[in-house]
UniProtKB/TrEMBL annotation:
PANTHER family per record: TRIFUNCTIONAL PURINE BIOSYNTHETIC PROTEIN ADENOSINE-3 (PTHR10520:SF12), TRIFUNCTIONAL PURINE BIOSYNTHETIC PROTEIN ADENOSINE-3-RELATED (PTHR10520)
Residue span, PurM-like N-terminal domain: 54-159
Organism: Chryseobacterium taihuense
Gene of this entry: purM
Reactions listed under catalytic activity: 2-formamido-N(1)-(5-O-phospho-beta-D-ribosyl)acetamidine + ATP = 5-amino-1-(5-phospho-beta-D-ribosyl)imidazole + ADP + phosphate + H(+)
Enzyme Commission number(s) from the entry: 6.3.3.1
Name this polypeptide is given: Phosphoribosylformylglycinamidine cyclo-ligase
GO cellular component, one term: cytosol
Domain PurM-like C-terminal: 171-324
Compartments it resides in: Cytoplasm
Family: Belongs to the AIR synthase family.
InterPro entries per UniProt: PurM-like_C_dom (IPR010918), PurM-like_C_sf (IPR036676), PurM-like_N (IPR016188), PurM-like_N_sf (IPR036921), PurM_cligase (IPR004733)
GO biological process, one term: 'de novo' IMP biosynthetic process
Pfam hit, one: AIRS
Pathway it works in: Purine metabolism; IMP biosynthesis via de novo pathway; 5-amino-1-(5-phospho-D-ribosyl)imidazole from N(2)-formyl-N(1)-(5-phospho-D-ribosyl)glycinamide: step 2/2
């Protein structure tokens, strides 16, 4: 018997099936700016309507949250996570997402699983007025075990140059407002899985994996709703490293984000992890978002307006003078 690509572990037909299952749905994310369709070597996106446009890009993956999804055989939310981790990052600079590309790697491709992951991305793209214009599916036997998948994405957004948000306008007296997370989002899952090895155990009346797999919240509508009404001085996406690592990224030297952790609404699942795992509170805040998925910094005179615009937003601190960049009162 002669060797074939299929005998080496790569089934091209399964890849074709994946494309067939997602092609129509992916097309529904396209707009007039998308000039071609799936199948080309490159994706074309026409830019118009901007005076001095700046492209803002971001890339990320889902991390070991994938292990929870794969073991629980629930795949759609992972696609949302992948998109959200990229789109929320570029949102920190006031950018509107234009297009998204995905990369899906596995040991043995199952078109049903692959399609479910991508269709999650499709729904997230639709929610953010973003086009899913391309991607790559790589079947790599020997690199990944059968049943293993890895997912990454790449998002490009746009913002007028004079409207870029980079934290440079933050000043003492500004208020720090929290936008709640939907849970762990896509960070810290190596520790989550260590403390919660059984994803099927019951937590608050349902299997634990349902709580762990709640997808990363998308903040596009919230942020642009604020931007239509008031100026935002700074935005931080609270991902790996929690508040400690992410807020200082937008704080200039000589200023400090003074935050009162007692004002933060910590999700029950995080309190359970802290208790069961014997994790110190400072370690929790240095690993997880602790219920704060994103923060915005605004002039004190605009804080009430922001709180009125977003029902679930709340104030957690203010900008003061100091050398620490962040002071978290736990």
């Amino acid at each position: 018997m002669s060797n074939t690509y299929k005998s080496a572990g790569v089934d091209k037909e399964e890849g074709y099936k994946t494309v067939d299952k997602i092609k129509k749905a992916v097309g529904e994310t396209h707009n007039a700016n998308v000039l071609n369709h799936l199948g080309s070597f490159g994706a074309f996106y026409e830019i118009g309507g901007y005076k001095n446009p700046v492209l803002v890009s971001g890339t990320d993956g889902v991390g070991t949250k994938l292990k929870v999804a794969l073991d629980s055989k629930k795949y759609d939310s992972i696609g949302v996570d992948c998109f959200a981790m990229c789109a929320n990052d570029i949102l920190c600079h006031g950018a509107k997402p234009l297009f998204f590309l995905d990369y899906l790697a596995c040991g043995k491709l199952d078109s049903e699983i692959a399609a479910e992951i991508v269709l999650g991305m499709v729904e997230a793209c639709k929610d953010n007025n973003c086009a899913l214009i391309g991607g790559e599916t790589a079947e790599m036997p020997g690199m990944y075990q059968p049943g293993d998948y890895d997912v990454a994405g790449f998002c490009v957004g746009i913002v007028e140059k004079d409207q870029i948000i980079d934290g440079s306008k933050i000043k003492a007296g500004d208020k720090i407002i929290a936008l709640p997370s939907s849970g762990f989002h896509s960070n810290g899952f190596s520790l989550v899985r260590k403390v919660f090895p059984d994803f099927n155990e019951e937590f608050e009346g349902k299997p634990l994996y349902e709580t762990l797999l709640v997808p990363t919240r998308l903040y596009y509508k919230d942020i642009h709703k604020i931007l239509e009404e008031v100026e935002i001085s700074g935005i931080a996406h609270i991902t790996g490293g929690g508040l400690y690592e992410n807020i200082p990224r937008i704080i200039a030297d000589g200023l400090c984000a003074s935050i009162d952790a007692s004002k933060i609404n910590i999700p029950n699942i995080m309190l359970e992890l802290e208790k069961r795992g014997g994790v110190a509170r400072e370690e929790m805040f240095g690993t997880f978002n602790m219920g704060v998925g994103m923060i915005v910094v605004v002039d004190a005179q605009h804080s009430e307006k922001v709180l009125h615009l977003l029902d679930d937003a709340y104030e957690i601190g203010e900008i003061t003078e100091g050398s620490e960049k962040i002071s978290l009162k736990i």
